[in-house]
Amino acid sequence: MAGTRYVRYVIVAVFCLALVWYINSSAGPTTFSGSTSQPATSKPNAVDTTKQASGSVQGTTPNSNGLPPAVVNGPRMNATFVTLARNQDVWEIARSIRQVEDRFNRKFNYDWVFLNDDEFNDEFKKVTTALASGKTKYGKIPKEHWSFPDHIDQDKAAKVRDEMREKKIIYGDSVSYRHMCRFESGFFFRHPLMLDYEWYWRVEPSIELYCDIDYDPFKFMADNKKKYSFVLSLYEYVETIPTLWNTVKDFTAKFPQYVAKDNSMKFLSDNGGVDYNHCHFWSNFEIANANWLRSQAYLDYFNHLDQSGGFFYERWGDAPVHSIAAGLMLDKSEIHFFNDIAYYHVPFTHCPTGEQYRMDHKCHCKPEDNFDWKGYSCLSRFYELNDMKKPEGYEKEQN
Ligand SMILES: Nc1nc2c(ncn2[C@@H]2O[C@H](COP(=O)(O)OP(=O)(O)O)[C@@H](O)[C@H]2O)c(=O)[nH]1
Ligand SMILES: [Mg+2]
Predict the structure, then answer these.
(1) Where is this chain compositionally biased, Polar residues type (predicted)?
(2) Atom number of ligand 1 nearest to Cα 86
């Protein structure tokens, strides 16, 4: 009897040992570091778990080394992001950089140029450099690119600002906004830091990108012979540009050689160029060719507008200034609508029409926020000018 009991003890002991061994070996990396049976590369966290294993037993968090880079191989264009900002814009531009990096640039690592009429402070540089995956560069704008030209009558300009304040015209009483619009119209692409680049993508504070961008839009522009692009288009406030169109007409009369044969006049005018319909591409987003802006044609155009004083005697925005130039001096095939770059700048959203597209590109915009087909958008004109077929379901987004 004692022998049988002894054999039973041995069987129970062996069973218990086997059970303990089984529990240990199947617990995996959540219990003991370094014992994962997954290949280290199958999940980003696994890489760090094995690193932490040396010396002590630890859990799988924190993952102090971050995610491995998801960089797309292949050539890069000679391109940069460009942002005009003040030091106090740091947290708003931080949000924009995060969006651009998450949706696109973490895979492409393009540089980022920051420009300011003042010196950037250390906080601005530290925060933005930490967020951007490419090289960051910080430039101060030369005084002559951010001041009143000599030919401007200061009293006349001040009187206009007073009148615009009375009329409650947006930014109507602001001097700095006028310097900003003139700088964006005629100078940013000539800043020494920008001269290194052929292509730029303009980014403003507090924008959002709503879909993944899995290809290189700069390369797309080059491959398809595009020079200027947009995502939102709308009508400009009439009160800010009363004489802009006539000044443009003087310019084209003086330099007819600069007007492209196959231009986009139909986008800008409903009567063959007699009047401006106020449609423009919204320039807070732009991917474009800086060499085009540096061309003699564009510089003559800008100088002509600048001489007339409209940046200060009215309140000309860089959006209509760029748009009219692109519309008249580029071939219409050189202007691209980036339907796939879903974008927000207060108060308008471009959210691509079509559920399948939005799902495929991991978009998080609300379809009903899409501005494209609403009454105040100029996108329909662009589609008609270029004989493009409007996407299925656009009618449902018109109101
Ligand atoms: N450095 C600098 N940047 C400015 C100034 N005013 C505006 N900006 C920048 O110029 C761009 C347009 O200005 P914003 O206030 O966004 O104008 P809005 O988009 O027309 O309402 C943004 O990138 C701003 O950060 C200024 O006085 N100094
Ligand atoms: Mg803005």
Answers:
(1) 31-66
(2) 1
Structure tokens belonging to residue 377: 């958008």
Q: Summarize the confidence of residues 381-387 as an average pLDDT.
A: 97
At 96-143, the pLDDT tens digits run 999 999 999 999 999 999 999 999 999 999 999 999 999 999 999 999
Query: Is 314 annotated in the active site?
Result: no
Tally of domains within the chain: 1
With a 6 A CB cut-off, is 80 part of the ligand 1 pocket? no
Query: Among candidates 233, 194, 200, 232, which has minimal Cα distance to 217?
Result: 200
Give residues whose Cβ lies within 5 Å of ion ligand 2.
Answer: 204, 284
Residues spanned by the domain of 293 = 79-386
Identify the CATH number of the domain in which residue 174 sits.
3.90.550.10
Strands 286-289 and 199-202, sheet pairing: antiparallel
pLDDT of 61 reads 65
Residue 342 lies in a domain: yes
Domain assignment present for residue 21? The answer is no
- Please, which residues have CB within 8 angstroms of residue 195's CB and are 6 or more apart in sequence? none
* pLDDT tens string 317-349: 999 999 999 999 999 999 999 999 999 999 999
